[in-house]
Amino acid sequence: FCLWLMQATGVEENVQELILTNGISKEASFTKMQLWGLNTYLYGPKDDLKHRLLWREVYSPEEEAQLRTLIAEAQSRGLRFVYALSPGQDIVFSSSCDLTLLKRKLKQVSDLGCQAFAILFDDIDHSMCQADSEAFTSFAHAQVTVTNEIYRFLGEPDVFLFCPTEYCGSLCSPSASKSPYLQTVGEDLLPDITVIWTGSKVISRKLSLDSLAEVESVLQRPPLIWDNLHANDYDSRRLFLGPFKGRDPQIRSHLRGLLLNPNCEFEANYIPLHTLGDWHRTGKEDVNGEGTEGGTVCEYCPERALTAALTDWMEELNQPLQREAREGEKMRSHQQPHQPGQPLPGSRSGALTGGGRTQKLPGRGVCGGKGMLSEAQVRLLVGLHYLPHEHGPSAQKLLQDLTWLKTNCHLVGANGKKTQPQKVDEWRGRASRFLSLCEDIAQLHCSVVGGANRAVLYDLYPYVWDLRNTALVAKAFICWLGKDTCRVFTSLDLSGVDSEPWAFKGGVSGEVQMLLPIGSSSELFTHPPPLFPTSRLYNIRPYHSKDKVDETMTIPSLQGESTAHPDVIGDRCLGPCLALSPEYSFILEDELGVCGCVLGISDVRSFAKRCQASWIPAMRDKYPPKGTNTHTYTQDLIRLMEEDQGEYPDSLLYHFPSQLRLDALPELVDVSVSRTLLTALLTALKANGSQGVFCEVQPTDHQRLEFLTKLGFLEILRGEARSREGVVLGRLL
Known about the structure:
Radius of gyration: 31 Å
Protein name: protein O-GlcNAcase
Shape: elongated
EC number: 3.2.1.169
Structural class: alpha/beta
Keywords: Glycosidase, Hydrolase
Helix content: 25-40%
Distance between the termini: 56 Å
InterPro entries: GH, Glycosyl_Hydrolase_84, O-GlcNAcase_cat
Largest sheet: 8 strands, parallel, barrel
Enzyme class: hydrolase
């Protein structure tokens, strides 16, 4: 029995000095494989074009040197290097020319010192060209004929793998035991050639003796498992940090080997490979005599193996480790960080302050420097990014509480005044627990960014950042539910669905997203992370009456007027929404205090009537003319306030009854939180039945126009069609 490691994607493009594309040396990965008892590395990266797309082309002298060094490095660590080639997309099996090119390519790699090979025919069309149809009785016959000839040409190496097109039970027609394709493979493929199998599905939840007996019979040999349990190349929002699990250790004696196809990110594979090594050692004799009775290691337990892996990983996580210096230089040459004072998308003249920008968030400190990840944080990280078919404890708690709080929001709404107090207390208790977990996720993001191991940062940051942003929206939504009247929701029920993991995108982050009223709008949630991570701690919450308008700002058109009142900017830009529609106002804050806000109006028609009936008269009383010099100023001010409300055609308001106004301070560090802030408002509007929202933007504000366009807003009205200059952008909810 052999234990294998398979790296299927994102590894070897332009290998220089054995460097992975994520900046970690191959030497480090080979050392860990050796340490954990793994003995084989299979080279099959999709970003090596000459592995699949350009399989006919031989490697250049420079590429030869790099591949030779890679093979030698693996062998020096006691690892078998398997070179895999995927010619199936366009090979003509009956073509002597293609067969000659295939032999030439593998002979070149053999001359570099490689002694083990794999021919992969996975994920290709079953159809054959006319020439192949005339030369072979079936698609399987064509593949087996070419594979047998290549195997003999290479001198019948000890390790030669064949990946069939029907490589799992769900791809077999009509079933694995009755598949004509697999029957041909089993009968005609030379017996010493090993056949790859992934289990009942591409990503199998479990592998048992019973499940392998069927395929072993039809293949007439024990299969080699190509295990995709931790593969994440099918979903850019998912990462799998959980233990090797669901594979009965007894299957080892019925296999020719096991390939683990790991996460694309090198640093994410510590626990998967560490626990895989534990699984492999289970039941073997303890040569040091330190095992249990009988001289064997105790029965494999995924939870116990996870604890052991976490203990070892903690030491590495908090050790300084930098990416290659040239990688950093490359990054800096492509993009410069945001400069203080430069406006960010969504910023405007108005701003809110929660008592000044020098105050910190309650109970939170500034996250910076090279900090230490605690064991509790690492367990949280693993629990949130566990396995494709199973969430960890923290993720389960997050989803269960969000589902329950959303379903039972009527207990705390305005219509729930007759609810029993204990029911209200239960809702608020679970809400408090949910909000605390969301805060832990935000703190985890902060700690990862500020951690000592920068290699871990660059590999894990996109996933931690994505979940942090989704949790910010969910947290704001639950806070809002506790204050406002909301409808009773129906949740997306994923229980009992036996499908491949890619059927539901996004992992925990995606499931939290789908539990939100606006969850189907993927453009609000799926964006690339900032190139330069920031450890600043952000929070999004509903507006409180204690939040005051910043009195240091003035209306640009009235600058220089000595009679300008200090409240003018707030009363004009923010006042109507905060006074008449506070339930749709959300605040963005960091460690220093409030740094942004988004204001919403659910029903523009009724809001305009209320504004004329109460807000404008109140402003006339607040800013009365006190003399001839101020009379014109006061008239202009009231006129501007009236114009700010705008007159929008019924055709617009029919489809887009709601309106939003987004504000952010220029020193906002992480631009992505502006999108998250806006998403929090859209979630609330959608929850209470709005079908569309619009925003008015000046045509010269290109940054804001681009920002909203990326979030699904489209231009629906321009100034020339109205009395105002602004461009109206809208999106349906």
